Input
Amino acid sequence: MKSILKLPIILWCFVTLVVYGSVWVSPEFFKYSGLVSLGIPFILIFNLLFFIFLLLSKSKRAILPAVLLLIGFPFIKSTFSLNRTTEAPSSFHVMNYNMMRMNKGNEKDMLKWIVSNTSDIKCFQEFLGSKSVIKAISENGKYNSFVGGYANSYAIFSKYPMVNKGVFYEEKTTNNILFADLKIGKDTLRVYNVHLQSMNINVDQEVIDQKEFDKKYETVRRKFLTGSVQRTAQIKDLLEHANDCNYPILIIGDFNDIPYSYNYFKISRKFNNAFERAGRGFGFTYNGKLQFLRIDNQFYNNQLDALDFSTLNDIDYSDHFPVVGIYSISH
Output
């Protein structure tokens, strides 16, 4: 009987380790690695239930799922956080928001909320770059602004002076990265406003609607795989650019990737994630039918300390929730 049980246990260990290991495999090398990574939360849940069952059964085999959960701890950490808010005498607030180009029919309410938000730095993706919107958020010069990219779809607003700024890709590229160097006292902060490649998948229809999903499965699959590869290339450009910067660095925005992906862990290996270090709960940022997605992030280097991080899930003017991080510069 014991020998019969050994084979499925060995197979399960192998499957678990393969799925865990997918975050180390670039989609440029194996395009399906992103699809394999989607299985990580299910693997974690199964191992947790398996561990509880064996523990209650007083089986010595409980050590096996316990070890697998221990190996998967980095994924648990990227899923759920339980941190305390800390304080510092000198700190600044950073807000990030994918505005969905204000096309949800609530433009006035959204703009009113954005203006009322007192964050020192505000970064937007899918920004509606009209003169009236820029003027309102700038509050007649209270904020310095940098708007660029395709159709002025990206923006950085800062109470601090901008001493340098730039755009990564040509304006015809719908997904882009902006950066700005901000003078905060004697220090200079580099901020990257990121909107990585969208998958152009209508989640509510092409994923949630079973009939529509069955009909468009091949299209959805192709979009997912293509998007993963393109994001990998963009992250490579981003990390190479950031590698030449000696300032404290913030990388924030809409990453269009879940925390169980090569792309997420590629950044995490060099930068800290504010949700993991200073957030609480699950921190889901997608405001749609798939409400368990966290695709908006703030990463920072070791020259900064994250004091707090929160998802404002009561602000539902877009298909994303805004996120706010509080930081101080390490000295």
Observations:
- Residues 143 and 159 are 5 Å apart (CA to CA).
- The chain is about 40% helix and 25% strand.
- The longest strand covers residues 176-184.
